[in-house]
Amino acid sequence: MSAYDDLMAFQRETEALGQIAGRLGWDQETMMPRGASEQRGEEMSAIEGVLHARRTDPRIAEWLEDARPADPVAAAQLRLIRRSHERATKIPAALAQRLARVTSTAQGIWAEARAADKVADFLPTLAEVIALKREEAAALAGDGDLYDALMDDYEPGATAAVIGGMFDRMRPRLVRLRAAVLAAAPVPKLDHHFGEQAQLRFARDLATTFGYDFTRGRLDLAVHPFSSGSGNDARITTRVVETDPFNCFYSTIHEVGHACYELGIDQDYLLTPLGNGVSMGVHESQSRIYENQIGRSPAFTGWMFRQMLDRFGDFGVGGPEEFARIVNRVQPGFIRTEADEVHYNLHVMMRFDLERALIRGDLAVEDLEAAWNDRFAADFGVAVDRPSHGLLQDVHWSCGLFGYFPTYTLGNVYAGCLHLALREAVPGLDDQLARGDTSAATGWLRENVQRHGGLYEPREVITLACGEAPTEEPLLDYLDAKFGALYGL
């Protein structure tokens, strides 16, 4: 066997072990008994020790030196293995294992603190997580920026300076649009009860409508909806609020976007570095375009309205036009995952600034709740009423996912570009969506984005799909046009 063959055989086992670790995380959020959290922390630490040892194995450097790629796919495999190896060798094994142990147990502590609305119960653990992430960032960054080093794990090549500049350009137009919409006539809320099991049945049907393959996945309940896995096992979760069915339905569609990305990757890349989504920004582009540009389009919501009438009976909405406005209702809200498209990116920008300050050491953990509440009141004009609507709402910091939040807005930007290209490629798209047929849209995304997996760099795959480099303008233009029409601006 050649050096390349030896390396890929070794890597395949590493990828398989990584999938096992991911399955443990999925179980922790869905099925694991509450009393098992400390033991699960030990289990996660143990498997992280095995994975870290494999990722830093000295033979990898030797194989990389001797390997001769036969084609662009092999070259891309080597590029990703080299990047992972160089990153892993900078992090001490003891630190990697401690991070795995602490963040695993921290998720349970966060969940209990959130349920009890007690920030103080979570802050000591959060302080420990932040200290470990700063230690990790220092090992990775060298003389560079700590936050950039962490963000590179989720969006290779991105920097806080570039992302911050993009946010600065986006904020004025978002704020102007928000002001115009909120000054228009308000849209009513749903006032009806939607049973849990009926919601879950429709959620499963929506997942199928968007192309989710239940022979290679499953739908479960979780506190914070997420997608987990890749290859031929990509699972999704949702949550149910019986007075707000859109919480369930659009969480499901969102996570289906993530899962379909993983399931749509070329099967030749299975259990290799190319067999995963290339970045969280590109991943988020899939979930957001499924959820918003397709799932919240007036064409698709017209079909959805008829489906809900059949399933739930009369729920007090006069017709498809009113239903589309209710689905896309704009209002300041506490919860990022429930935010409308106009407010969503403002939530992300706030978290981006706060976590950068935490990693730089400019914001102490004990001052974080006050900083969150002050910033939220300034940005949204509403005072946070309880911690589960504020600092405790997101799972990310308990998991140690610092640098992850900006990829949500980057994903929206990519989705805006992809939507523009999709509309040009499929001119009759609205007629299809009005029939509940998403196959042309999801097929175009699978062909132009999903099947490539990690073959290209993040911005490169978007550029290839769209024919030009991504910018924030298509997203902002789409938002202005959509909400201008819905609100008569």
From TrEMBL:
PANTHER family the UniProt entry points to: CARBOXYPEPTIDASE 1, METAL-DEPENDENT CARBOXYPEPTIDASE
Binding of Zn(2+), residues: 254, 258, 284
Enzyme class: hydrolase
GO molecular function: metal ion binding; metallocarboxypeptidase activity
EC number: 3.4.17.19
Family: Belongs to the peptidase M32 family.
InterPro entries documented for this protein: Peptidase_M32_Taq (IPR001333)
Signal sequence coordinates: none
Cofactor binding comment, as recorded: Binds 1 zinc ion per subunit.
Protein's GO biological process: proteolysis
Name of this chain's protein: Metal-dependent carboxypeptidase
Record-annotated active site: 255
